[in-house]
Amino acid sequence: MDEERTVEDLPGVGPATAEKLQEAGFDDLMAIAVSSPSALAEAADIGEATAIKIIAAAKKMADVGGFVTGDVIMEQRRTVSKLTTSSKALDELLGGGVESCAITEFFGEFGSGKTQITHQLCVNACRGEEDGGLDAHTVFIDTENTFRPERIIQMSMAHDLDPTEVLQKIHVARAFNSHHQMLLVEKAKEIARNNPVKLMVVDSLTAHFRAEYIGRGALADRQQKLNKHLHAILNFADLNKAAVAVTNQVAAKPDAFFGDPTRAIGGHILGHTSTFRLYLRKSKGNRRIARLIDSPNLPEGEAVITVIEDGIRD
Length: 314
Ligand code: GTP
Ligand code: MG
What we know:
alpha/beta, DNA polymerase, domain 1, Rossmann fold, nine-stranded mixed β-sheet, two-stranded antiparallel ribbon, 13 helices, binds guanosine-5'-triphosphate, binds magnesium ion
């Protein structure tokens, strides 16, 4: 990529449009190159035809969209980092931990440990790479008001970390509805510009969508919005080489509307976008069983974890 060129160098982008794009989070060529014409048109208050031209120019300047050979991909895969879950068994199931540049979905019934795992990941993201961390900050999109600094403090102390330092590296936003939740992904891009963010958490990814789009008639609309949201999240992961953990609640028993619990709400679209899907179910006491479902390169399998005061453990 040519480092010298910026958004202002794009044909048809004057200072006013550049500023609007900047405000909407389209502040580098790559972000524009991978955006859709309608999203760009809306963000910059321009016509779709102009947006198409700008995107085409950005694609050329940012040099995206070419084919590469498998050995190059293998080399790129070496730069993927793995974030530990603090459970050896769960890390092994995930092929070393939660992977960067991908979405890992934790789904299961209430109390299955989804939120606890996301808290553990926030703490671990602060740790150095030698400890399975990312040496980085987290953005946490909280839709159910379940982020608990108290838990972060407990989990930090268990790993001999300064709890205040850890809390200062977690940027939390409450999402009040699905629309707000989608906007927060754009906001997260701003935070990532000023801080080394390498983890995004969305807990819960689906609760607002589920509550707002009710009944079969709303299903297509819900899937479309959720799809758009997931692509924005994947875009965030790509731009920042960040790991993403999302949660998704499902009933323990099949129900008439959502069907088989292992086929989480969000259906096919979510299934195709999340790179790793972990189904969590309750076992005796503080034990939880995690099952890996359709991963691109890992065998299906199970890991037993426990949720204790210190956090997630084997
Ligand atoms: P929903 O958000 O309701 O769908 O559930 P969830 O899957 O997010 O569940 P969550 O991660 O909140 O797990 C809750 C469980 O974690 C509780 O039932 C407890 O067993 C356990 N837990 C939470 N906090 C603590 C704690 O401070 N100490 C211990 N020992 N266990 C805890
Ligand atoms: Mg939860």
